[in-house]
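TASK: fixed-backbone design
INPUT:
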Protein backbone atom coordinates (compact mmCIF):
# COMPACT_ATOMS: atom_id res chain seq x y z
CA UNK A 1 0.00 0.00 0.00
CA UNK A 2 1.28 3.45 -0.92
CA UNK A 3 1.88 5.81 2.01
CA UNK A 4 1.40 9.57 1.69
CA UNK A 5 2.55 11.88 4.53
CA UNK A 6 1.42 15.52 4.35
CA UNK A 7 2.79 18.08 6.83
CA UNK A 8 0.88 21.35 6.95
CA UNK A 9 2.06 22.87 10.24
CA UNK A 10 5.14 24.91 9.52
CA UNK A 11 7.01 24.46 6.25
CA UNK A 12 4.91 22.37 3.83
CA UNK A 13 6.24 18.89 3.14
CA UNK A 14 4.78 15.96 1.16
CA UNK A 15 6.34 12.51 1.39
CA UNK A 16 5.45 9.54 -0.80
CA UNK A 17 6.72 6.32 0.77
CA UNK A 18 9.00 8.49 2.95
CA UNK A 19 10.52 10.30 -0.04
CA UNK A 20 9.93 14.02 -0.54
CA UNK A 21 8.09 14.80 -3.77
CA UNK A 22 7.33 18.47 -3.18
CA UNK A 23 9.98 19.66 -5.65
CA UNK A 24 8.38 17.46 -8.34
CA UNK A 25 4.98 19.17 -8.10
CA UNK A 26 3.70 22.52 -9.33
CA UNK A 27 2.72 25.15 -6.77
CA UNK A 28 -0.98 24.68 -7.50
CA UNK A 29 -0.72 20.90 -7.37
CA UNK A 30 0.74 21.27 -3.88
CA UNK A 31 -2.08 23.68 -2.97
CA UNK A 32 -4.77 21.26 -4.21
CA UNK A 33 -3.28 18.36 -2.23
CA UNK A 34 -3.05 20.55 0.89
CA UNK A 35 -6.65 21.67 0.50
CA UNK A 36 -7.91 18.09 0.13
CA UNK A 37 -5.68 16.81 2.94
CA UNK A 38 -7.38 18.98 5.59
CA UNK A 39 -10.51 16.85 5.08
CA UNK A 40 -8.88 13.78 3.62
CA UNK A 41 -12.00 11.57 3.80
CA UNK A 42 -14.26 14.07 2.06
CA UNK A 43 -15.56 13.88 -1.50
CA UNK A 44 -14.91 17.26 -3.16
CA UNK A 45 -16.86 19.02 -5.89
CA UNK A 46 -14.52 19.53 -8.87
CA UNK A 47 -16.10 22.88 -9.81
CA UNK A 48 -15.52 24.24 -6.31
CA UNK A 49 -11.83 23.30 -6.36
CA UNK A 50 -11.39 24.75 -9.87
CA UNK A 51 -13.01 28.01 -8.79
CA UNK A 52 -10.90 28.22 -5.63
CA UNK A 53 -7.59 27.89 -7.42
CA UNK A 54 -8.24 29.71 -10.68
CA UNK A 55 -11.08 32.08 -9.80
CA UNK A 56 -11.90 32.35 -13.49
CA UNK A 57 -15.13 33.22 -15.25
CA UNK A 58 -14.03 30.83 -17.96
CA UNK A 59 -15.51 27.58 -16.68
CA UNK A 60 -13.88 25.36 -19.32
CA UNK A 61 -10.40 26.80 -18.66
CA UNK A 62 -10.71 26.32 -14.91
CA UNK A 63 -11.82 22.71 -15.32
CA UNK A 64 -8.99 22.03 -17.77
CA UNK A 65 -6.40 23.51 -15.38
CA UNK A 66 -7.69 21.30 -12.56
CA UNK A 67 -7.56 18.17 -14.75
CA UNK A 68 -4.02 19.00 -15.83
CA UNK A 69 -2.75 19.44 -12.25
CA UNK A 70 -4.43 16.22 -11.12
CA UNK A 71 -2.92 14.43 -14.11
CA UNK A 72 0.55 15.65 -13.15
CA UNK A 73 0.19 14.19 -9.67
CA UNK A 74 -1.29 10.94 -10.98
CA UNK A 75 1.58 10.59 -13.43
CA UNK A 76 4.17 11.06 -10.68
CA UNK A 77 2.29 8.76 -8.31
CA UNK A 78 1.95 5.93 -10.81
CA UNK A 79 5.61 6.21 -11.76
CA UNK A 80 6.67 5.72 -8.13
CA UNK A 81 3.98 3.19 -7.17
CA UNK A 82 3.57 0.73 -10.02
CA UNK A 83 0.47 2.24 -11.57
CA UNK A 84 -1.56 3.05 -8.46
CA UNK A 85 -4.18 5.83 -8.87
CA UNK A 86 -4.32 8.05 -5.75
CA UNK A 87 -7.81 9.43 -6.57
CA UNK A 88 -11.35 8.24 -7.02
CA UNK A 89 -13.15 10.62 -9.35
CA UNK A 90 -15.97 11.15 -11.76
CA UNK A 91 -17.14 14.15 -13.81
CA UNK A 92 -18.44 15.99 -10.74
CA UNK A 93 -16.39 14.86 -7.73
CA UNK A 94 -12.95 13.79 -6.61
CA UNK A 95 -11.51 12.28 -3.41
CA UNK A 96 -8.50 10.32 -2.22
CA UNK A 97 -8.63 6.58 -2.84
CA UNK A 98 -9.62 4.78 0.35
CA UNK A 99 -6.78 2.30 -0.13
CA UNK A 100 -4.21 5.08 0.08
CA UNK A 101 -2.55 5.31 3.51
CA UNK A 102 -2.59 9.06 4.26
CA UNK A 103 -1.13 10.78 7.32
CA UNK A 104 -1.86 14.50 7.84
CA UNK A 105 -0.23 16.18 10.86
CA UNK A 106 -3.19 18.39 11.76
CA UNK A 107 -5.57 15.44 12.26
CA UNK A 108 -3.94 14.67 15.63
CA UNK A 109 -3.58 18.34 16.50
CA UNK A 110 -7.26 19.22 16.25
CA UNK A 111 -8.43 16.87 19.01
CA UNK A 112 -10.31 18.30 22.00
CA UNK A 113 -7.81 19.21 24.73
CA UNK A 114 -10.07 19.27 27.80
CA UNK A 115 -9.41 15.70 28.89
CA UNK A 116 -5.85 15.40 27.62
CA UNK A 117 -3.01 14.36 29.89
CA UNK A 118 0.12 16.48 30.14
CA UNK A 119 1.97 13.99 27.96
CA UNK A 120 -0.73 14.15 25.28
CA UNK A 121 -0.66 17.94 25.36
CA UNK A 122 3.12 17.89 25.00
CA UNK A 123 2.76 15.69 21.92
CA UNK A 124 0.21 18.10 20.45
CA UNK A 125 2.59 20.99 21.07
CA UNK A 126 5.37 19.15 19.23
CA UNK A 127 3.12 18.79 16.19
CA UNK A 128 2.84 22.56 15.87
CA UNK A 129 6.13 23.25 14.11
CA UNK A 130 4.89 26.60 12.81
CA UNK A 131 1.86 28.32 11.32
CA UNK A 132 -0.45 26.42 9.00
CA UNK A 133 1.13 26.39 5.50
CA UNK A 134 3.82 28.77 6.72
CA UNK A 135 5.06 30.94 3.86
CA UNK A 136 2.85 29.16 1.32
CA UNK A 137 0.96 31.52 -0.98
CA UNK A 138 -0.48 31.29 -4.50
CA UNK A 139 -0.36 34.64 -6.26
CA UNK A 140 -3.47 34.39 -8.47
CA UNK A 141 -5.69 32.33 -6.13
CA UNK A 142 -7.29 34.80 -3.67
CA UNK A 143 -9.98 32.35 -2.53
CA UNK A 144 -7.38 29.74 -1.64
CA UNK A 145 -5.27 32.36 0.18
CA UNK A 146 -8.32 33.48 2.17
CA UNK A 147 -8.98 29.85 3.12
CA UNK A 148 -5.37 29.50 4.29
CA UNK A 149 -5.71 32.64 6.41
CA UNK A 150 -8.81 31.43 8.26
CA UNK A 151 -7.43 27.91 8.74
CA UNK A 152 -4.21 29.41 10.06
CA UNK A 153 -6.13 31.53 12.59
CA UNK A 154 -8.29 28.57 13.66
CA UNK A 155 -5.33 26.27 14.20
CA UNK A 156 -3.33 28.92 16.02
CA UNK A 157 -6.25 29.40 18.43
CA UNK A 158 -6.21 25.67 19.14
CA UNK A 159 -2.44 25.81 19.65
CA UNK A 160 -2.83 28.66 22.14
CA UNK A 161 -5.53 26.70 24.01
CA UNK A 162 -3.11 23.78 24.16
CA UNK A 163 -0.39 26.03 25.58
CA UNK A 164 -2.73 27.47 28.22
CA UNK A 165 -3.80 24.01 29.35
CA UNK A 166 -0.21 22.74 29.39
CA UNK A 167 0.98 25.79 31.32
CA UNK A 168 -1.74 25.33 33.94
CA UNK A 169 -0.84 21.65 34.33
CA UNK A 170 2.82 22.53 34.89
CA UNK A 171 1.92 25.14 37.51
CA UNK A 172 -0.36 22.70 39.34
CA UNK A 173 2.53 20.23 39.49
CA UNK A 174 5.00 22.93 40.62
CA UNK A 175 6.97 22.56 37.39
CA UNK A 176 7.58 26.29 37.25
CA UNK A 177 10.45 26.41 34.74
CA UNK A 178 8.36 24.43 32.26
CA UNK A 179 5.45 26.80 32.84
CA UNK A 180 7.73 29.79 32.16
CA UNK A 181 8.94 28.14 28.95
CA UNK A 182 5.33 27.79 27.76
CA UNK A 183 4.61 31.42 28.64
CA UNK A 184 7.61 32.44 26.55
CA UNK A 185 6.17 30.47 23.62
CA UNK A 186 2.92 32.37 24.06
CA UNK A 187 4.74 35.72 24.16
CA UNK A 188 6.42 34.80 20.89
CA UNK A 189 2.93 34.77 19.37
CA UNK A 190 1.65 37.89 21.13
CA UNK A 191 4.49 39.93 22.69
CA UNK A 192 2.06 42.67 23.84
CA UNK A 193 -0.15 40.46 26.02
CA UNK A 194 0.42 41.92 29.47
CA UNK A 195 -1.10 39.07 31.49
CA UNK A 196 1.59 36.71 30.17
CA UNK A 197 4.33 38.96 31.56
CA UNK A 198 2.40 39.15 34.82
CA UNK A 199 2.26 35.36 35.12
CA UNK A 200 6.00 35.10 34.57
CA UNK A 201 6.63 37.82 37.17
CA UNK A 202 4.37 36.10 39.71
CA UNK A 203 6.04 32.73 39.15
CA UNK A 204 9.47 34.24 39.78
CA UNK A 205 8.15 35.99 42.91
CA UNK A 206 6.70 32.66 44.09
CA UNK A 207 10.00 30.81 43.66
CA UNK A 208 11.92 33.67 45.25
CA UNK A 209 13.84 34.89 42.20
CA UNK A 210 13.20 38.65 42.59
CA UNK A 211 15.96 39.59 40.17
CA UNK A 212 14.36 37.74 37.27
CA UNK A 213 10.91 39.00 38.25
CA UNK A 214 12.24 42.55 38.02
CA UNK A 215 13.94 41.77 34.72
CA UNK A 216 10.65 40.64 33.19
CA UNK A 217 8.80 43.65 34.58
CA UNK A 218 11.29 45.93 32.82
CA UNK A 219 11.00 43.80 29.69
CA UNK A 220 7.22 44.34 29.72
CA UNK A 221 7.61 48.09 30.30
CA UNK A 222 10.07 48.43 27.43
CA UNK A 223 7.93 46.49 24.97
CA UNK A 224 4.73 48.42 25.77
CA UNK A 225 6.50 51.77 25.68
CA UNK A 226 8.26 51.07 22.37
CA UNK A 227 5.31 49.46 20.59
CA UNK A 228 2.22 51.17 22.04
CA UNK A 229 3.58 54.14 24.02
CA UNK A 230 1.66 53.04 27.13
CA UNK A 231 2.49 51.93 30.65
CA UNK A 232 1.75 48.48 32.09
CA UNK A 233 -1.60 47.70 33.71
CA UNK A 234 -2.04 48.51 37.38
CA UNK A 235 -1.84 44.83 38.38
CA UNK A 236 1.64 44.59 36.88
CA UNK A 237 2.68 47.77 38.66
CA UNK A 238 1.42 46.25 41.94
CA UNK A 239 3.58 43.20 41.28
CA UNK A 240 6.52 45.54 40.70
CA UNK A 241 5.92 47.24 44.04
CA UNK A 242 5.77 43.82 45.68
CA UNK A 243 9.21 43.04 44.25
CA UNK A 244 10.65 46.32 45.53
CA UNK A 245 9.08 46.03 48.99
CA UNK A 246 10.35 42.47 49.39
CA UNK A 247 13.87 43.69 48.66
CA UNK A 248 13.50 46.63 51.08
CA UNK A 249 13.86 49.20 48.28
CA UNK A 250 12.76 52.64 49.38
CA UNK A 251 12.23 53.92 45.86
CA UNK A 252 8.82 53.73 44.18
CA UNK A 253 7.81 54.17 40.56
CA UNK A 254 7.25 57.90 39.94
CA UNK A 255 4.71 58.61 42.62
CA UNK A 256 3.07 61.87 43.62
CA UNK A 257 2.75 61.85 47.40
CA UNK A 258 0.57 63.75 49.81
CA UNK A 259 3.26 66.33 50.64
CA UNK A 260 3.15 68.00 47.22
CA UNK A 261 6.35 66.33 46.07
CA UNK A 262 7.30 64.06 43.21
CA UNK A 263 9.37 60.98 43.94
CA UNK A 264 11.28 59.58 40.95
CA UNK A 265 12.23 55.92 41.25
CA UNK A 266 15.68 54.68 40.44
CA UNK A 267 15.03 51.18 39.17
CA UNK A 268 13.85 51.90 35.65
CA UNK A 269 15.09 50.81 32.20
CA UNK A 270 17.58 53.63 31.65
CA UNK A 271 17.96 52.84 27.94
CA UNK A 272 14.37 53.88 27.20
CA UNK A 273 14.27 57.56 26.35
CA UNK A 274 11.62 59.60 28.23
CA UNK A 275 10.75 56.56 30.39
CA UNK A 276 10.77 58.40 33.72
CA UNK A 277 8.89 61.38 32.31
CA UNK A 278 6.26 59.07 30.83
CA UNK A 279 5.74 57.41 34.21
CA UNK A 280 5.60 60.84 35.80
CA UNK A 281 2.74 61.77 33.47
CA UNK A 282 0.89 58.63 34.58
CA UNK A 283 1.01 59.90 38.16
CA UNK A 284 0.01 63.41 37.17
CA UNK A 285 -3.10 61.94 35.58
CA UNK A 286 -4.15 60.62 39.00
CA UNK A 287 -4.49 64.15 40.37
CA UNK A 288 -7.95 65.57 40.94
CA UNK A 289 -9.77 66.66 37.78
CA UNK A 290 -10.45 70.10 39.24
CA UNK A 291 -6.71 70.77 39.18
CA UNK A 292 -5.99 69.16 35.83
CA UNK A 293 -8.69 71.19 34.05
CA UNK A 294 -6.52 74.26 34.62
CA UNK A 295 -3.75 72.86 32.40
CA UNK A 296 -3.53 74.46 28.97
CA UNK A 297 -4.53 72.39 25.92
CA UNK A 298 -1.22 73.17 24.21
CA UNK A 299 0.69 71.62 27.11
CA UNK A 300 -1.34 68.41 26.90
CA UNK A 301 -0.69 68.27 23.15
CA UNK A 302 3.08 68.79 23.59
CA UNK A 303 3.47 65.89 26.07
CA UNK A 304 1.12 63.55 24.18
CA UNK A 305 3.96 62.00 22.07
CA UNK A 306 5.64 60.54 25.15
CA UNK A 307 2.46 59.29 26.84
CA UNK A 308 -0.82 58.98 24.95
CA UNK A 309 -2.80 58.68 28.21
CA UNK A 310 -3.27 62.47 28.14
CA UNK A 311 -5.41 62.22 25.00
CA UNK A 312 -8.61 62.27 27.08
CA UNK A 313 -7.82 65.86 28.09
CA UNK A 314 -7.32 67.02 24.49
CA UNK A 315 -10.42 68.46 22.88
CA UNK A 316 -9.20 68.77 19.28
CA UNK A 317 -7.76 65.35 18.38
CA UNK A 318 -6.81 66.61 14.92
CA UNK A 319 -3.91 68.49 16.45
CA UNK A 320 -2.24 65.36 17.80
CA UNK A 321 1.20 64.53 16.46
CA UNK A 322 3.52 61.66 17.46
CA UNK A 323 6.71 63.60 16.74
CA UNK A 324 8.58 64.45 19.93
CA UNK A 325 10.01 67.96 20.28
CA UNK A 326 12.14 67.86 23.42
CA UNK A 327 12.01 71.54 24.33
CA UNK A 328 8.22 71.59 23.93
CA UNK A 329 7.92 68.58 26.24
CA UNK A 330 10.15 70.24 28.83
CA UNK A 331 8.31 73.57 28.68
CA UNK A 332 4.90 71.86 28.82
CA UNK A 333 5.88 69.89 31.93
CA UNK A 334 7.27 73.06 33.47
CA UNK A 335 3.92 74.78 32.90
CA UNK A 336 2.10 71.80 34.41
CA UNK A 337 4.37 71.88 37.46
CA UNK A 338 3.53 75.55 37.92
CA UNK A 339 -0.18 74.65 37.98
CA UNK A 340 0.51 71.90 40.53
CA UNK A 341 2.51 74.27 42.74
CA UNK A 342 0.11 77.22 42.76
CA UNK A 343 -0.85 76.66 46.38
CA UNK A 344 2.34 75.18 47.74
CA UNK A 345 6.00 74.61 46.92
CA UNK A 346 6.58 71.61 44.68
CA UNK A 347 9.51 69.37 45.66
CA UNK A 348 11.17 66.76 43.48
CA UNK A 349 12.76 63.79 45.26
CA UNK A 350 15.30 61.78 43.22
CA UNK A 351 16.48 58.42 44.47
CA UNK A 352 19.50 56.75 42.81
CA UNK A 353 19.73 59.28 40.00
CA UNK A 354 22.28 57.19 38.10
CA UNK A 355 19.52 54.83 36.90
CA UNK A 356 17.28 57.47 35.33
CA UNK A 357 17.25 57.69 31.53
CA UNK A 358 19.35 60.49 30.03
CA UNK A 359 16.48 62.57 28.63
CA UNK A 360 14.54 62.51 31.90
CA UNK A 361 17.73 63.48 33.73
CA UNK A 362 18.17 66.37 31.33
CA UNK A 363 14.66 67.53 32.19
CA UNK A 364 15.44 67.36 35.91
CA UNK A 365 18.41 69.65 35.35
CA UNK A 366 16.22 71.93 33.26
CA UNK A 367 13.41 72.20 35.81
CA UNK A 368 15.73 72.52 38.82
CA UNK A 369 16.60 76.05 37.72
CA UNK A 370 12.95 77.13 37.75
CA UNK A 371 11.14 78.83 40.62
CA UNK A 372 9.00 76.84 43.07
CA UNK A 373 10.72 73.58 42.20
CA UNK A 374 13.13 72.32 44.85
CA UNK A 375 15.35 69.28 44.20
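OUTPUT:
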Amino acid sequence: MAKLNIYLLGRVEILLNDESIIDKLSHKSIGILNYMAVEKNKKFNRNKIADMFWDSNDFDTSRYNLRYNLWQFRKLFKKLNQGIDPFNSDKETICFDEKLDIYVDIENFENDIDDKTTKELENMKKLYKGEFLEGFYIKDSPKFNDWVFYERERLQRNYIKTLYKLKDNYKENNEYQKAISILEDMLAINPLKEELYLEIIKIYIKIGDRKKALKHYNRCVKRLREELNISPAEEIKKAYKEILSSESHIQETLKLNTENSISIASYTPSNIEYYSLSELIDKIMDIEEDILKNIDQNDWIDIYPINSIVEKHIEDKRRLDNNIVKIKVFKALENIFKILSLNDQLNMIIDEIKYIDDTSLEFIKFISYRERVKV
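COMMENT: The chain has a mean pLDDT of 85.
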